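Tutorial, part two.
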Amino acid sequence: MPVVRPSEAVVHEMHGVRFVAYAAPSTGSRELCAWRGEIPGGTRAPAHTVSREEIFHLLDGELLITLDGTRHRVTAGDTVIVHPGATLAVENPADEVAVSWVTTSHGLEATLADGTRIVPPWAG
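Running the prediction step on this input gives:
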């Protein structure tokens, strides 16, 4: 079983959010991807539809998450289950950074409202 040290995690930035990838094909994971998301205060990420199930767990802070048109206030300790085909938008209305942990399967793609497809490099 590989051990991924913090110094080996791969950092990506997109839409003002910092993604720190730990589990991915590049680190030896065969089926799953996992990353820490650092969402600065005042950040509003664009709505996107996901191709794979995501498990989104908030470690620290507070977020407003809109899932298929329904807005949820999520606080530290809450977990959001995002099914394939669901549309998700994330907003941090606070001043502090919110920190999340996300797990999904390899091959996740996100499609923005304008049809742009994003294949996050940290999701294999």
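The CA atoms of residues 9 and 25 lie 12 Å apart. In part three we will examine how such features are distributed along the chain.
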